Every structure is written in C-alpha cells, then in structure tokens.
Amino acid sequence: MLAGLLTLYLAPFLRYRPYDIDNPWFLSFSYNAWVDHIVDDRFMRMRFPGGMDGTQLFGRLAAALQGLVLAPAGWQQWPAAVLSSVFAVLALGLWQLQLRRLGYTPRYRALFLLAVGLSEPCVSMANKFRYEFLSFALISLGLLLVAYARPVPGLFIAALAAEIEPAALAGIVAALVLTYSLYPATRRLILAQCAALGAALLVYLALHPHVFSLLRGMAPAAGGKGFAFTGGFFASYFLARLRHLPELACFLLAAVVYWRRRQQFASHALALVALALTIFSIAMPHGNPSYMIFLYPALVALALTAFRAEQRAGLAAAAIVLYTIPQYLYLFHLTQGQGFRARDIQTVHAAVETAAGQLGLNDRDLRIYGDYRLWFAHPQRYVAAAESTMSEAGNANLYLCFDRPPESPELAPRQVLYCPELLRLAPLRPLTTLTVNHQLLRLYARQ
Q1: How far is the C-alpha of 69 from the C-alpha of 64, rounded, in Å?
Q2: CA distance from start to end of the chain
Q3: 432 phi and psi, to 5 degrees?
C-alpha cells in the first residue's frame, strides 16, 4: 500500500495544482539559504508573521535537506516532487509501526493508511514543495519513539519539527499527550522531557542565533496589530472550503460515538491526541489548510476506532475511495494540459540568457522581476511580480509576464501581477515573445 501511494503521488506529476505559488516560494527560501546564504524572503517580500520570511526564523533544517538533494538536480520540479512524496510515504510508514506497537489490527492499519494516504492534506503535502513533508516526518518519528517506550528522544525529535515551521509545535503537543496517556507521570520522566525540550530549543537557537533581535525589529513593522483569532487551520480547512464539510460531519459524529462507547476501549491515547491537536488547530493564529496534515491522522484514528471500521473493512475502504478519488479526478480535469515541464523551463531559460546578452549583462548582474511560475528558469535574483513586491519593480532589468493567468480562474492566486499591471508600474520596452505550453510569454526591459 505504501508503494502504491508513492506511485499515486508521483504519477500525476504537475497535475495537482501545477502552478501552486508555494512551490517556487518555498524553494526560493531553500535556494537563497543554500546557494546565496540569504535568509530573508527575497521572492515575495512577505515579512513574518504574514509569511515565513525566508529561513531567518524557521526552516533551516528543511532548506538544508532540499538544498542537499536539489542543488545537484538544478532546483527543478521533478526531484522536489520526489523528495516530498518519499518523505510523505516514509511518515505514513512510521505511523503504521506506531499503530502496530499500540496494538491495532492489520485491517485497522490498512484502513488508516488508505484514509490518510488518500486525504487531501497528505496528497497536497506529497505534491507540494512546502516544508510540511519534513516536519510531519519528524513528528511521526517522534510519536513512534514514544510508542516504543522512548518518550524522551521521541519528544526531542518531535520538538525539532517546530524549527521548520511554527505550526509543527503540534508535534510537541501530540508527543506530550501520547507520553502521559501511556506512561506514569513520574518526576524523572518529567525532568527528562524538560531536558529534551531544552535540547531542542538549543538546536533552534544554534540555527537561529539572531531570533530575538529579529523579532524586536519585526514588532514595529507589524504595527502592533497582534494576532487575530480566526479559528486556526481547523477553520481554514473545514469551514472555508465547503467540500470538506462531509469530513467534518464524519469526525464530529465519530467524537459523539466514541464518547458513548468510551468504556469499551482499552486505551484512549490517540483519542486524547486528537482532542489536544484539535484545540491546538483552532487556537493556532495562522490558518493555513496545509497544516491540517498535523491533525488529520489523529482524527482518522479516532473515527476508525469509534466506528469499529475494521469490522466492515470492505465497506469502509469503498467509502474512502469513492469520496476521495472523484475529487482528484475533477481536479486533474481542471489542470489538464497545464504546468511547465522541464522542456518549457529550458525554453524560458534560453530566452533569459539571450535577453541578458542583448542587454549586455552577465548572469551575476541580471535581476528579474517576473511571473512566479517561471522561477525555475532562473532562481538567482528572481523577484515574483506581486502586489507585495511592487516596490521592487523598478530595481529589475528584465521582466517576464503573461497577459493573464495560465490556469483556471478558480485556481489562480490573487495579488499576482501580469503584463498590463507591469506596464503601469514601470516604463518598459518589449524584447521578445515566445510560446510556453500554449501560453504567450512576454519579455521586457526597462526603457
């Protein structure tokens, strides 16, 4: 099943949101940190807490891993997709070992793997280049160690995930709840886990030694607004996207059934983990639906337990497949023929080199302000054309743009600039045009 899921994740390459803005955005963090030793966000200019803001506060571990793998491969999409998918499957395998250790049956584990592996949070994680692939794998490893009576190193590993992104603090919550659901809260264990958290904090500070001065500098820029309560990533996943309401109804019903049958279960460990993570997901100030991967496995475990799904494994498996697969087929229909493949990126790269020669610029001096989808053609000194970077428009010497979004309107990101907006921002002169996967790309230079 794990091999089948890996095939499922890789087979529709560039069919799952092929123009997702987070793909070049997060890879730009890793590229800048690995190649140019730049730690802030030079791609979209989104400062923390509005965005990750590069790797100056979070993400050094994930950036190092992506750099180690992608630098020899030229920072292209296929190796990045393989990396994310492999770690997603690895994390699911760790959950399988954890469930076996906790005494769950093979049928239960197979249904769990099917439900989580086909869920949108997992498929999205496996097909995107965001950092959840590593943070989820670390949390899964930490929980496995806790289940195998290694709660101290388990908490340390889970806490390391918080260096990658703030939402991965969910790993600490899950590891602590699982620990004290399985083992007595002795003074020795509490002190040892405090030491584990302290060690993880020291690792974080070693990777981000200037964190306190950076946060002080960011406070005035934030305007003193603070964090507004929005319902966290629980609301952004279940309530802001109506297609997930059936899942929410299923989990709510499972919670009611579980409570009524609570006397029949030998252990409530995963149910308590699900409860704690649900509270965390609602309280989390930044509501990105990508973070749902930290909660979803616990909710699935609760639902399978409450409904005794392994007793009707065939019916449960059919329901999972019939609910998930048609959604992906519809998405693949919307994205049919979209995405820039290696040959398209190479075509744009050659055009950029030709334009630089026309402008008398070498690669070191070339600064591009262009469509975010084309970052892969020239990762160095590439600023995405967006509302957040409009102040940078006058600093470039080469501009890449489309007249309109190349994808379906419902999938196109907001606040992205196209050729008409660029022509209003700066005085530009046309250099050349070319067709990239049936889309007309325009190259401009400053007048």
Answers
A1: 9
A2: 58
A3: -165, 165
Cα angle value 259/263/269 (rounded, 5°): 70
Predicted confidence (pLDDT) per residue in 139-151, tens digit: 999 999 999 999 9
Q: What is the pLDDT of residues 255-289, one digit of tens each?
A: 999 999 999 999 999 999 999 999 999 998 888 99
8 Å CB contact between 400 and 376 = no
* Residue 287, C-beta contacts closer than 8 angstroms, at least 6 positions apart: 230, 231, 232, 233, 234, 235, 236, 240
The structure's pTM equals 0.95
Q: Give the residue carrying structure tokens 């509490």.
A: 190
Give the Cα separation of 398 and 234 in Å (integer).
41
- Nearest Cα residue to 179 out of 102, 254, 291, 113: 102
What does residue 62 show for φ and ψ, rounded to 5 degrees?
-65, -40
Name the amino acid, one letter, at 137. Answer: A
Rg (CA), the chain: 23
Helix (H) or strand (E) holding 439: strand 439-446
For the chain, which residues make up each domain, given as ranges?
1-212+227-335, 342-446
- Nearest CA among 30, 124, 135 for reference residue 85: 124
Is 356 within 8 Å of 366 (Cβ atoms)?
Answer: yes
